[in-house]
């Protein structure tokens, strides 16, 4: 029996280029940078005013004054029609780790710059004793 080593994998150069482009499209560079630069704390130590995965948030758009609420989720867990925004979207990735009262900005699919204020966290799993969501 041959022992498989990670370094034994072979990819075509075209596959590598295509997959890298796909990854760049799916994972915003800013999110990757934020993960590299963040301070990670145990779930039980996260303050209740910080956006975590599966948090339901209320934001106020700076341009329109409109308030919108949604849940920050993983990509395959639902759709915007059900009130879920993916953490891999520009809006979702701009919110992760923010505190209530923070101003933030993101780019829309058409390239427009938008900004809003995180008004409140309506639900945070960790604040409700759920440390495994």
Q: Spans with pLDDT under 50 lasting ≥5 residues? A: none
Compute the number of strand runs: 5
Distance between the termini: 39 Å
Largest sheet: 5 strands, mixed
User: In one word, what is the shape?
Assistant: globular
In the CATH classification, which architecture of the domain at 50-128 applies? Roll
CATH class of the domain at 50-128: Alpha Beta
Structural classification: alpha+beta
What's the mean pLDDT score?
Answer: 81
Would you give the CATH topology of the domain at 50-128?
A: Chitinase A, domain 3
Largest sheet: spatial strand order? 3-2-1-5-4
Give the topology string: H per helix, E per strand: HHEEEHEE
Helix content, binned percent: 10-25%
Folded structure, characterized:
With 133 residues, the chain is α+β, with helices and mostly antiparallel strands. The chain has a domain at 50-128: Transcription elongation factor, GreA/GreB, C-terminal domain (Chitinase A, domain 3, Roll), CATH 3.10.50. It is 22% helix and 24% strand. The chain contains three helices and five strands, in the order ααβββαββ. It has helices spanning 13-26, 29-37, 90-95, and strands spanning 56-61, 67-73, 84-86, 103-107, 113-123. It has a five-stranded mixed β-sheet. The N and C termini lie far apart (39 Å). The model has no long low-confidence stretch (mean pLDDT 81).
């Amino acid at each position: 029996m041959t022992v498989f080593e990670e370094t034994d994998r072979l990819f075509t150069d075209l596959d590598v280029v295509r997959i890298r482009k796909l990854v760049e499209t799916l994972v915003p560079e800013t999110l990757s940078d934020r993960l590299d630069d963040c301070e990670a704390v145990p779930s039980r130590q996260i303050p209740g005013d910080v956006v975590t995965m599966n948090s339901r948030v209320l934001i106020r758009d700076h341009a329109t004054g409109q308030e919108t609420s949604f849940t920050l989720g993983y990509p395959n867990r639902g759709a915007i029609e059900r009130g879920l925004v993916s953490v891999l979207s520009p809006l979702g990735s701009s919110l992760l780790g923010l505190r209530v009262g923070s101003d933030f900005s993101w780019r829309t699919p058409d390239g427009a710059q938008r900004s809003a204020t995180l008004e409140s966290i309506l639900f945070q799993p960790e604040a409700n004793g759920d440390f495994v969501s």
